[in-house]
Amino acid sequence: MPNSTQSPYLLLANIGQLLTLRGEAAPRRGRDLQDIGLVENAAVLCGGGKILAAGPQRELLRDPWLRTNRRKVRELDCQQRVVIPGLIDCHTHPVFAEPRLVDFEKRIGGADYEEIAAAGGGIRSSVAAVRRSSRGELSKKVLAALNAMLEQGTSVVEAKSGYGLTLEDEVKSLEAIRDAARQWPGEVVPTLLAAHVVPQEYAGKADDYVKKVCDEMIPQVAKKKLAKYVDVFCDRGAFTQEQSERILAAARKHGLGTRAHVCQFTAAKLAPLLEYQPASFDHMDCVQPEDVSLLARGETVAVLLPGTNYFLGHTGFPDARRLIDAGVPLALATDYNPGTSPTPSMPFVLSLACTHMKMTPAEAIAAATINAACALRLQQRKGSLEAGKDADMAVFDVKDYREIAYWFAWDRCVEMVVAGRVVGLGTLGER
Ligand code: NIG
Ligand code: FE
User: Fold this and answer.
1) Closest residue (by CA) to atom 1 of ligand 1?
2) Using one digit for the tens of pLDDT, what is the confidence trace for 283-337?
3) For residues 396 and 413, is the Cβ–Cβ distance under 8 A?
4) What is the DSSP string of 396-430?
5) Mean of the pLDDT values across residues 376-405?
6) What is the secondary structure of 86-149 as a DSSP string?
7) Which of 227, 250, 278, 373 has a CA that sits 20 to 30 A from residue 90's CA?
């Protein structure tokens, strides 16, 4: 008989509440965002890294295969806790070397993010340290962040470059992401964000930098297969609408997906950017009414990042209710980065979504699982617990799923299962 701890089969038993998020592999909109597929007294059977069955424990245990093979199956007693799909953090910037403490204190003293950036702080002040760092040093930092995310329930992370801003340093940053991803059990989706800000050496020559991004960086990164997406920061103080379009066009030409930071400080015109079929528009603090209805008719996911509003000390937050009620597909992410959101915690983002954006806990969880999977175009494999999908799950030490968003700054995630394997936060009883 095989040793059950190395068994390819895993049974999560005695689950108090299981959120399956089952349904169409498509973004949830409007009222459907509430639909989290709650099953009480549930179990999940995994095999070969995939979900074989998920549902009421009574039904699952009647399965003839399980009845004959139960002793070959490793079993985890969830002790009536809550199990949800692994959280998906679909927007992060983990390749940086240092926290930005000078900016932090300047903001406390009354300066705002844009003033600090214009005075040479902001994104540009993270660039020198990344350029000085080796690939190995950066990959250690990325891995530490990925592990902190995993501990709080995240099993899929989108990770951007964007603090190198030369061909060499952007490639180094993406290689650091790849090196870290290879040592991490979850899945990492790499994104080239060379168009994060115009670097100092191109001051007054932004178009020359855009040309370099389009003609050198995007083609090289595509050739080396270092990124799946190209992102651009389209806003006041970063790249214009027209420059952003050139960057997204180059991405498409080289076979890469697109996404964009838009409408954080100023409203962009979204229709021209939609021509490049972006997987997501991220931030979306200030969206024009005509663009809301445009997004409601399309597949591009609006990714809201309330950690940035919190950390920048803003009183306003993106208007999630307006977007949800109009039928815009919406996701949530941390935006983990040193300037605007130094948190690895998706549960904290869920809390912010409920307290500051008036999303219900059910909506917030759907936005951080199935809709976040859609924002990365991974919805065929990720984001819900259904037969055939990847067996990625987070176990929270709570009785009711609403507690995941209720307790804040309190890490209640006690176990992670990734690709059908317990990755070992290690607090649950095993049989
Ligand atoms: O998503 N808005 C642009 N980029 C990041 C901030 C990066 C930084 O300040 O270092 C963001 O908020
Ligand atoms: Fe960002």
Assistant:
1) 335
2) 999 999 999 999 999 999 999 999 999 999 999 999 999 999 999 999 999 999 9
3) yes
4) ES-SSTTHHHHS-S---EEEEEETTEE-----SEE
5) 98
6) PEEE--B----SS--HHHHHHHHTT--HHHHHHTT-TTHHHHHHHHHS-HHHHHHHHHHHHHHH
7) 250
Q: What is the rounded average pLDDT for all residues in the chain? A: 96
Range of the domain at 313: 87-375
**332: helix, strand or coil:** strand
Same domain, 118 and 38: no
Q: Are residues 183 and 313 in the same domain?
A: yes
Q: Are 129 and 140 in the same domain?
A: yes
Tokens coding 278: 């972006």
Ligand nearest to the backbone CA of 123: 1
Q: Residues with beta carbon inside 6 Å of ligand 1?
A: 93, 122-123, 126, 233, 261, 264, 308, 335, 337-340
Quote the number of domains for the chain: 2
Q: pLDDT tens digits for 187-246?
A: 999 999 999 999 999 999 999 999 999 999 999 999 999 999 999 999 999 999 999 999
